[in-house]
Automatic annotation (TrEMBL):
InterPro entries assigned: OxRdtase_Mopterin-bd_dom, OxRdtase_Mopterin-bd_sf
Gene3D superfamilies: Oxidoreductase, molybdopterin-binding domain
Occurrences of domain Oxidoreductase molybdopterin-binding (ranges): 35-179
Domain of life assignment: Bacteria
Lineage: Bacteria, Bacillati, Actinomycetota, Actinomycetes, Streptosporangiales
Sequence intervals crossing the membrane: none
Pfam family, one: Oxidored_molyb
Name under which the protein is recorded: DMSO/TMAO reductase YedYZ, molybdopterin-dependent catalytic subunit
Sequence segments annotated as region (Disordered): 1-22
Amino acid sequence: MSTFTRGFRGRRRGEDDRLPPGQYLAEDFPVLSAGPTPHVPLDRWEFTIDTEAGQTHRWTWRELTALPYEEPAVDIHCVTSWSKLGTTWRGVSLDVLFEDVETTADYALVHSYGGYTTNLPLDDLLDGKAWIAYRYEGEDLTPSHGGPARLLVPHLYFWKSAKWVRGIRLLTEDWPGFWETAGYHNYGDPWREQRYADD
Ligand SMILES: Nc1nc2c(c(=O)[nH]1)N[C@H]1C(S)=C(S)[C@@H](COP(=O)(O)O)O[C@H]1N2
Ligand SMILES: [Mo]
């Protein structure tokens, strides 16, 4: 048994081990949007972090794209069961954006141009786990996939990766977002299959 198992798994390791339970590998890159694609001119675009104490940190498009960036290669997992392995992005780590932010808040409510919202613990945005991404596979992020910029939080189901991201509000109490209010799981860990509220 061990010989067979080792050989079989050895050949396929990499893909199988990186696919969370109930997920399949997508060939294409599906578009999932709950509403129309908002179009914001880059000279009017801004990204903000609002603290629980009422302070606002603000970046224009020029300021955001002048910051040091990273080029993460990450696996992404949509709650509707498709996954993509090794997608490559360019974006600014949230660690960079939070450098001068003073907060004791535990929760973040991410909001988008167009009105979409999603919530997650602030810790899940920090320590190299999340980016404001503006390029995908070497190209500017297309509007349908969240361009000019989207949140990228690959360790949670992809609905947490808000497209057309506009800002983050820091909160001392958790505040469910769009899909979390509609029955999706509050946290959304794909490895624990946290798809719906009761999972
Ligand atoms: N603003 C906004 N962000 C969003 C969504 C949305 O409808 N609006 N859909 C979410 C869902 S459910 C998924 S699976 C991913 C889809 O991203 P994609 O369209 O680039 O595949 O975006 C997430 N971010
Ligand atoms: Mo999704």
